[in-house]
Write a structure and sequence with these properties.
single chain, 298 residues, alpha/beta, eight-stranded mixed beta sheet, four-stranded mixed beta sheet, 10 helices, binds 2-acetamido-2-deoxy-beta-D-glucopyranose, transmembrane helix, transmembrane, Protein Star, EGF_Rcpt_Signaling_Reg
Length: 298
């Protein structure tokens, strides 16, 4: 019997040693290299660095463990929050020309002229699109890139769409993260449903096929991560009451045009009131697509 306990104790110590060794290897080699790359890549967000891209695409699990550190609520301008979000900004793996007319649905082709008019035919502008989908079908920013030489940031939390964005070759930055409806970061539940119907959950999450936990960032943190407070166009398509997501400090940013997908007439009334108080006028509503466009008054 004594011999048995000695074996158990020795075995236990051996296992403990292996656990300790693997943790040490992760901390000292894997994570050190990862953090070095993170620092390097966040200082080079404006270059198409494939070294960074490959690193981030291959390190999902590490990024996930980093995300856990952000589950506590951090203020929208918290430097560590901004730093972490900046590290998610990367370019597409295969930049290539995409034939838009083949993909874009007719009703979106109707919406595009309203958008172009709202930005006064501007060329070389900069946009942020929240809820970018797969970046091709129904994308309003793809023709802006191609015909008006715009660039910007595509934000998409649904991992299936985000994978498309990386493959399809948009010219803009991509962030597969979750826009939140609080002025702080928080750990949100993102419900993944039929294509185009996924959303950040507040209740009724039983109806979703898959629910994924992810860190959600306030809108302003995206602007700070880009180091940019002047934006020509922000598009918000979040399958939810958009006004809740407009947690921006409007006195600190200059956004010329804001285009929002609304849910229903109630939502539309809320939005118009809210935006009027922020000194925006309505320049167009397309009922067929449930989009409203606001422009900052001079
Ligand atoms: C960190 O990464 C940069 C860029 O890849 C590299 O030049 C540098 O040697 C690395 N430093 C360490 C300590 O690994
Ligand atoms: C934008 O371009 C269209 C077509 O080229 C033109 O008809 C329109 O007047 C332009 N609008 C502005 C504000 O420049
Ligand atoms: C298009 O935009 C890029 C920057 O994104 C700029 O370098 C280039 O000069 C622009 N081209 C034209 C024709 O304005
Ligand atoms: C942010 O932009 C400003 C001016 O546009 C520049 O001076 C500053 O170095 C930038 N900071 C970072 C971290 O890129």
């Amino acid at each position: 019997m004594d011999q048995f306990y000695i074996y158990v104790t020795q075995g236990g110590l051996y296992v403990l040693f292996l656990i300790y060794l693997s943790r040490w290897l992760v901390d000292n080699i894997y994570l050190k290299e990862h953090h070095n790359m993170t620092t390097y890549c966040s200082n080079h967000i404006n270059s198409h660095s494939h070294k960074c891209l490959d690193h981030f695409l291959n390190s999902d699990s590490i990024l996930d463990s980093d995300k856990d550190d952000l589950s506590e609520k951090l203020q929208m301008d918290d430097p560590s929050l901004v730093y972490n979000l900046r590290n998610t900004l990367i370019y597409s793996k295969n930049p290539q020309y995409i034939e838009i007319s083949k993909y874009s649905k007719a009703q979106f082709r109707e919406l595009f002229p309203l958008l172009v008019k709202s930005v006064s035919n501007k060329t070389n502008g900069f946009f942020i699109e929240f809820g970018a989908g797969d970046g091709i079908v129904n994308s309003l920013t793809l023709p802006l890139e191609q015909r008006f030489n715009w660039t910007g940031l595509l934000v998409e939390a649904d991992p299936r769409f985000a994978a498309h964005l990386h493959r399809r070759g948009r010219k803009s930055l991509i962030s597969s993260t979750c826009l939140g409806y609080q002025p702080t970061s928080f750990l949100g539940l993102f419900g993944i449903n039929n294509y185009g119907k996924s959303k950040l959950l507040t209740e009724d999450w039983e109806t979703y096929h898959t629910v994924e936990q992810m860190t959600c960032f306030p809108m302003y943190t995206y602007l700070l991560a880009l180091n940019r407070t002047n934006i020509d166009l922000v598009i918000i398509d979040v399958n939810d009451k958009a006004v809740d997501y407009l947690t921006l400090p409007f006195d600190k940013v200059l956004i010329d045009v804001i285009m929002i997908k609304y849910l229903n007439y109630n939502d539309l009334a809320f939005l118009s009131n809210f935006m009027e108080q922020k000194n925006y006028e309505t320049v167009g509503i397309k009922e067929k697509n449930s989009f409203i466009v606001f422009k900052k008054m001079k």
